[in-house]
Amino acid sequence: MKKRKELSFPVMDVKLVATEKIIANDYNPNKVAPPEFELLVKSIEEDGMTQPIVAYYDQENDKYIVVDGFHRYRACKEVFKAKEIPVVTIEKDLSNRMASTVRHNRARGTHQIQSMADLVVKLAQDGWKDDEIGSHLGMELEEIIKLKQATGLRESFSNHVFSRSWEEFESKYYTKDE
Question: Which of the four pLDDT bands, split at 50, 70 and 90, describes residue 45?
């Protein structure tokens, strides 16, 4: 069994740093599409800033270079106009900071379709309307419907009120004798 390094807790040393002292790194391969950025903004708006930015402190330039959390930084700075942002620092050379950035990005994982479908159905069963689910989870109506379909239509749409348009159609075009 591989021996691991002793666990450290930079997260226990969070400091508020002036926004103008924080800068992006020039190597982050992670890009966020506008819908996901809006969901991040919604998350910060609803839950507050729950994760500090991870940065390297460049003493020579008195700047904090983002290792992880650039999009959180951007949301705080551009959308919320924050003057200060919570930051934790790590001491690593450039190559290791680059590796840290990729590890942080890749370690977040992905959502499994069935688990997301079950979650959407549970919210619907709890009385959430599709537009509420979409707003809070950053989903389009089409995605919500597809996720509901993945769990089985009957259960997914059990609380849905359907129009009576088919009955109206039948009453106009078909007689009871047919």
Answer: very high
